Fold these 3 entries.
Entry 1:
Amino acid sequence: MSFYPIFVQLEGKKVVVVGAGNVAHRKVRALLECGASIYLAGRELVSELEQMVEKEEIHFLGREFKDEYLDNAFMIIAATDDKDLNHRISTCAREKGVWVNAVDQPPDCDFIVPSILKRGDLQIAISTSGKSPALARKIRKGLETQFGQEYETFLAMMGRLRKEVLSLGLPQEENSRIFQKIVDADLLENFSDGFPKRLEKYLKNILPEQVNLKNLWKP
């Protein structure tokens, strides 16, 4: 089976996680970074999950999974070490029309979670369609040296630059030409130490004079 690659907006959406161990903790932590509202069910929580519950970072539903936990949920992740329970959760979720991921049980999944390389707003997702997560992790580690932290800095600048250029109301073709020329200029190596001043001269030759370069140099 081939999975359709997609990035999902989870800000404020109810996501249920069933599990109490380290795998559940990793899932919860990643979901929180995306702004999801987490509802957790699990028997013996690891200390990190207990602290999240105590700090009210996540909502604790109870120690045993109940079908009603899925009411108004956007998605659920079954991260227990009980395959039969994970399967039951998957069956219930599908009946209710809730997206489900059962860890290490592809047939019980509506979606799978890829191995992610993240540099700020840059995210590179690697998937083997569930056939070899170990290979996906190996590929991700290989990409870590190719895509350093300078991509985060560069992309932050490009976000500010794009906003300023689009506000000028230039023709779409001109906007595309400007953005493509900057991306093709191999400027990334100059961003390892932030925004060096020597880039200003280069950018002035590309950007419309109305663009305030000082607005781009933010940490």
Note: The beta strands are 14-18, 37-41, 59-62, 75-78, 99-102, 115-119, 122-126.
Entry 2:
Amino acid sequence: MLNPGKAVKVTIYLSDGATHHGVPVYSSILDFLFYRGVAGATVMKGIAGFGADHHMHSSNLIEISDHLPLKIEFIESREKVDAILGKLEELAGTGLIEMQETTVAKPAQLSKKTKPPAPAHLKIQGKAQMMRIYVSEEDRWKDKPLYKALVEAMRANDIAGVTVYRGILGYGAHGRMHKEKALLSTHHCSVMLSAVDTADKLRAFLPVVDQMVEEGLVVFSDVDIIKYAYRAVDEGQESPSTVPGGATE
């Protein structure tokens, strides 16, 4: 780990296409620096430039050149740089190595990964209702799959949770048999959405279902639920499970 004070900044200029024993040179150099305990290194890729051969290289949207300039930068103590310089020169081959005296004002700190306390569980037990909605996978609502729109609508209306199940065999009101084919995808299978919440919330959401589902089946059933959930879930973190799948009738 670096300490505040005098240090050396090393910059190695390479061509993107340069290899060392069949491996990209920048990758070989990064591996070497990593296993020699260098504090950190960064690879940056240019979009245009030329080198000792005086050939201009640039990237475009059609073809990305493999001869664009690369540079690797790292900062270390003078003692460590002197110890690894010979090997760096060997790895860099025809590349350019530049060194500058610098001062470390504040070294990077290791991230402190504190173990979060075990989340408390919240146990909810009591009477509720389950709403099941049966529609076709090909049904749509405002240019999106109906089942997906229903899930979004339930989330917007604070329904506790919903799970979508895709049928592999079945028939509906028209009596047509629909079967999932192994080699050929079909969009004619039935889809069931299962949501569990209080009777009041599900009944209040029913007008939305009536508006969105033109052809399908909606059923309600009483359930006894035991729901275990963390009191809080970090933003952006997936919840451990979908609520309806954990309900027991």
Note: The radius of gyration is 31 Å.
Entry 3:
Amino acid sequence: MRRRGEVSHPRNLRNVIALGFVSFFTDFSTEMSLSVLPFFIVEELKATKTVLGIIEGLAESISHVLRMISGIFSDRVGKRKLIVFIGYASSNVVKPFFAVARSWTDALAIRIGDRVGKSIRTSPRDALLSESIPKEHLGKAFGLHRTLDQSGAIVGPILTFILLFSGIAMREIFWLSFIPGLIALAILLIFVKEKAGARRHIGIMNDIKSVLRRDFVLLLSVLGVFSMGAFNYSFILLKAGELGAPAAFGSLVYTLLQVAHTVVGIPAGALSDIVGKERVLLMGYAAFFAASLLSMTLQGNLVYAFLIAAVYGSYMGIVETVQRALIPEYAPSHLRATAYGLYYLIVGACFMVANTLVGTLWEYYGASAAFTYSLATSVLAMIGILIFTKHLKRA
């Protein structure tokens, strides 16, 4: 049990900043690899685009399932930092082995290893963040973490572009990605402090039942509805191609998307602490609606690709910050990692459905059908969050 006033001590903010820089250097490392990985798998390892899709889909689905398991385990053993370290170490150590991959099955094994590391660390890390800062400042804390995280996602691809332009081979890029990964592990070991409580001896199902209170279930339902239509950035890049963007411009569109994501994180989190996280989440859903509407209606001008990317990046900055900051408000304090695990399980499963459906609709019925589907789910989610907020006021 924390003593009154302990969470507001500056040392507790240190965890937020330190974990932010851990994520910065890990994303720096990850995006160095991921920015060239599709080309590496298809061109050098001679895999088909279908195989590339299978690699990414399988890796992400395994990642989201395991996040629930790691969250439950973290709550039961009363540890956060050790589990977070194991997760970051797994990802940062395994990624450089892309440099020695000889087939797409090698790449699949390495990619799964990377995502397993992410799944191990994510729920305990978010719980550690939420336990390191007062409840009334959670939005700013998650916004700061998200901004540092995404800053790494901008710097990594830029450095990779410079290295490739100077003549460095793709396989060498994978080896070099280990350097920022090692820095991330050093920061985690030295600067991040443990915040978890006592080991739990109650049954796992009892813990899950304790988390699945009515308000939390209602919140997960709304988040799930939205996630059923929340396609990922790949479709924004596909739209950019339809608007006439060649591959080089596509990378600039992706960079602008990441910049918007980064810039919006802290302001969105701070605003959510002031006016309420549910209200700001509604703004995020509205931004996704706008990005889908623009994608469906704008045609024939390359400039539109950058506009759509900026709006879509703003949606990501708001939603991915505020949703994570919202979870602790509806979960028991001693079961936050379990709550995050359930959250990631629901959102991840719905996200897989979203991308499958959007891709299928686009393939067989055109982009308008795909974006219309996402417009419909975002409208339902906005109605859902309004009903949920009204329910809380009545309660």
Note: The CA atoms of residues 241 and 278 lie 35 Å apart.
